[in-house]
Batch of 4 targets.
Target 1
Amino acid sequence: MEIQRIDPEEAKRLLDSDEGYAYLDVRSRDEFRAGHAPGAVNIPLLDNNPAGPGLVPNSHFLQEVEESFGKDAKIIAACLRGGRSLKAARLLVGNGYTHVVDMRGGYDGEIDREGNVTFPGWSRRDLPTTTDE
């Protein structure tokens, strides 16, 4: 099944609507604490490696999502640039979630090989952000 990808403005519109969408931020806890969309739920797909630098898979990801959301929940998956959230959205749909969309560009934005932003994300579009947990 192909995952529907939406831009940050569409994500904001859905979150502000009465359709019941939730923003699932799959970035690491440290990335989330640095800034996120208001009301976002943080369940990392990958999290900080306790043994050293880098990120490691969160082996409890699906369990944590199931504890927070029913299979029929309307979920907007998002991360830093769009890669992890697309993987998370595919994983969720593959495990029976029926209303999952991916926010293209993530919180910061897609970048090219030189580090130039090619598709601005949530924060670069001046959409609301917070560091509140």
Target 2
Amino acid sequence: MTPARRRRKLRLAFGPLGPLAALGLCAGIAAPAARAATDRPVAINAATGLAISGFDPVAYFTDGKPKFGRPDLELRLNGIVWRFVNEGDKAAFADHPEIYTPRFGGYDPVAVARGHSVPGHPLFWVVTGQRLYLFYSAEARTAFLADPARYIAAATRKWPAVARTIAQ
């Protein structure tokens, strides 16, 4: 799909269909990764240029659900643009990006455990061990929840090699 067509579809989706439809159109489309404060690659939505498709990373912890950040509450950190619901979330992230940045840069930990870099989807998520994890699909999330410790350990071992394969 051409960039112009993608932008046109995105505009249409944000109109009558709402922001979740736009997210669905862009799901799985990741731009080359950028580096986070931890100097690790972070999945960026190619259509919007935003980390985790514009969702507020702090809201997963404070509100217990994904929430779209506001365009007027953006923070650029090491070339990555993050959006937030409110000033408090923005300040919390600015103070502790290593806590609120999704683990494995927003890449699916189940895929990382298998040696692959697959961007996670902001609507398939879990917070465990005080860290946010994003998944490519509901099935991957379900597999992870069956044995989080096993997937986290395997993904942690394989992440350095997987991260090196992600386009910069």
Target 3
Amino acid sequence: MTRAVIIADSGAVQAELTHTLLEARDIEIVRHVSGRSDVTTIVEGFRPDLVIVDEMRWPPRALTRVAEARRAAPSAAIVVRAERIEGDWLAQALRDGASAVIPAQASAATFRHVVAEVLTLLHAVA
């Protein structure tokens, strides 16, 4: 079972991502985190295999959350869901530790597929 933490400011986004991930049936959501919370402490405490970061419509904060999650869970897959994916921002997200970045407009099936591929790669390396 893959343990996941979802970082998102919006309760609606948290619910949407939870519903989408639970349809995969092999993912357990262990914690929802507001983007304003102490991400490092929470992620360290739950030791997830997967961290989902919603861009929260403030791209610099999302980059900070990616870097914090990477430091707190160095072996976790980190998938960022972003409203706008621009070259410099995308490059920085990947440098900060994102395993994948997916557009917020992607379908639930596409989101699950990307997460599954990232987890497959993570398990292949481990």
Target 4
Amino acid sequence: MFRSLDLFISLFALIILSPILTLLWILIFLESGHPLFKQQRIGYDQKIFLLIKFRTMPMNTKSVATHLVDSSAITPIGFFLRSTKLDELPQLLNVLFGHMSLVGPRPCLPTQKKLIIERRKRSLFKVKPGLTGLAQLSGIDMSTPTLLAKTDLKMIKKFNLYYYFYYIVFTLMLMFKKK
């Protein structure tokens, strides 16, 4: 059921947001030459997939976790994209392709060893990673791996249709509030 919802909502969102996506694509292309950024992430069953985002840093910037990025490396458009979370919109393609769900633990980098260990302990790789979830809405990022994994587990244990929509709607409310 959640996969069907993911497909429907992500396809619908991509169609509705296509004018915004096109505009952002053009602006980023003009600024940095390549609008998309692809990064290896760990997904369901610890399989590697390429996470797709809008580029917020120059092409030659080292690929690291967001909380480790020096703010001087972020482009002017990148600041706007990150502050509004619009840089995440291309991940709707990851949802469409089945690498991710709309709701689930955020996918981690293969270099985030402590987080991988904490998630493995809690069997969190048995669910698809998501665009949003309880940890993101609680302001918990990957700099606190144990707390993040515990929060992800709390979300997964209580997960149902109500919470699926709750996390999506709450995320959208926060995005529009920031704008």
